[in-house]
Design brief:
Number of domains: 1
Structural class: alpha+beta
Strand order of the largest sheet: 1-2-6-5
Shape: globular
CATH class: Alpha Beta
Number of helices: 6
CATH topology: Zincin-like
Radius of gyration: 17 Å
Number of strands: 8
CATH superfamily: Metalloproteases ("zincins"), catalytic domain
Distance between the termini: 21 Å
Order of helices and strands: EHEEEEHEHHEEHH
Helix content: 40-55%
Strand content: 15-25%
Amino acid sequence: MVRYTEADQDLVDIFKEIMEERFPTYANLKFCLVYDTKPRTKEGKMVFASTELPSAKLKYFSTDEEAEDGYDYIMFVYLRSWQLASTEDKRRIISHELRHVFIDETGNPKLDGHEISDFYIEIELNKDDPEWLRKLTELTQDVIDQEKEMAKSHFD
C-alpha cells in the first residue's frame, strides 16, 4: 500500500476555508497537502497531522504550476482520522497545524512549537467541545484495532 497520497477536495476546501478565515496573512505561502496512510504517535499521542519545512532538494522536486519555486510547507494529514472526523474536527486539525507556521523577521518560512500541548488560542476556539481530541483519538484507535482484527482473522 502506498504511504502518501494526494489530498482530496474535502481537505483542500477545509484548508482554504481556515486559511481565509483565520490566517489571511499566509495567503501567499505555498502548502502541499498530503494524506499519510500510516498511523503515527509522538510522545504516546496519536498524530492527526504534522507540518514540515521541505529541504532544498524537496523544494526543487516539488515544483509545479501552483508552486513554481516549490512549496513553503508540506502538511501531512493522517487519512484514517480525517475520514472519521466531523467537519468541525477537521477544521480544528487544520487550524491547529497552521498555528505552527510563521514567517521570521527576514521573510523565511519557519515552524513554531506548542505553547502548551496545544495553543492557547485553539483552546479558546474549541471551548464548545474541549474533549474533541480525546474522542477522535479513541474513535480512530478503535477503528484501527478493528481493522487489524479483521485482517488477522482473514489469515487465521
